[in-house]
Amino acid sequence: MNNVAIRARWVGAAAFFALVAGCATGPNANPADPLEPFNRGVSRFNDTVDDAVLVPVATAYQKALPSMVRTGVNNFFGNIGDVWSLANNVAQLKLQNSAETFMRLNVNTFFGLGGLLDVATEAGIPRHEEDFGQTLGYWGVGPGPYVVLPLLGSSTLRDTAAKPLDMYGDPLGHVEDIPWRNSLTVLRIVDTRSQYLRASRLLGDAALDKYSFTRDAFLQRRRSQVYDGNPPDDGGGSDGGGSDGGGSDK
Fold first, then answer.
1. Is 190 helix (H, G, I), strand (E, B) or coil?
2. Rounded to whole angstroms, what are the CA distances from 224 to 2, 59, 174, 231?
3. In degrees, to the nearest 5, what angle opens at C-alpha 175 toward C-alphas 171 and 179?
4. Are 233 and 217 in contact (CB under 8 A)?
5. 194-228 confidence digits (pLDDT tens)
6. Is 148 in a helix, a strand, or coil?
7. What is the C-alpha separation between 80 and 109, in angstroms, rounded?
8. Running DSSP on this structure, what letter comes out for residue 247?
């Protein structure tokens, strides 16, 4: 069984456990977060791991490597991510976004030293990040309840169901050399965490309830992503909508 299959089954098991834990909801539960007692427990576990492992490693990474090197690493992984974004832009029938993402991939891969340089952005070609959860939302699949996954963090039922395919679509998961694949995966995690060190410190200092603030910010951001930054002002909880124009191409 390859690494991608193992991760996919693990995420599926986590999602099932989250649903089973729904019976623990309290009488004053947020309608978007019926699994709040379970989610808070997982969130505390994730924060413990983050404080003990990710924050120290990301801090050391940030201090050890010059900004120029870290920018190159971030550009490299961004270029890899554009591969799956292209597939999801095509799946959402976003012709302009698909064309621009295809151009980004070619420009950065061939003229940006394999993606280390973000030549495409300098040339005015925008990035259109999309994942399979957004694709499901575009075609009308509602987000479902908020879920906090062990180690993976904030999600929704829809996004959790989409994660196995997102993992399969990740080009890193198809690197056959296991040591290289694992090293690149760890590097991407550390690089990503290092970008949010300052934000997480500010959040910890400012938020009266870090869990609620994180949940509300995540749900609002995902809704905005599904609607390409223009969610309808309908007050509803659903963020899907290829049929009602919510995910229309810009």
1. helix
2. 34, 30, 30, 6
3. 130
4. no
5. 999 998 988 878 768 999 999 999 999 999 999 99
6. strand
7. 9
8. T
d(CA 33, CA 56): 31
3-state helix, strand, coil in the chain (%, to 5): 65, 5, 30
Q: Contact 42/150 with Cβ under 8 angstroms?
A: yes
Q: Phi first, then psi: what are they for 22, rounded to 5°?
A: -60, -25
Burial class (CB in 10 A: 0-12, 13-18, 19+), 111: exposed
Phi and psi based region of residue 23 (left: phi greater than 0; alpha: psi -120 to 50; beta: remaining): alpha
Contacts of 137 (CB under 8 A, 6+ apart): 143, 158, 222, 226, 239, 240, 241, 247
Instruction: Tell me: pLDDT of 150 over 90.
Output: yes
Q: Assign 103 to helix, strand or coil.
A: helix
User: Are 96 and 249 within 8 A, CB to CB?
Assistant: yes
- In 3D space, the residue among 3, 52, 16, 29 whose CA is nearest the CA of residue 149 turns out to be 16
By three-state DSSP, how is residue 54 classified?
A: helix
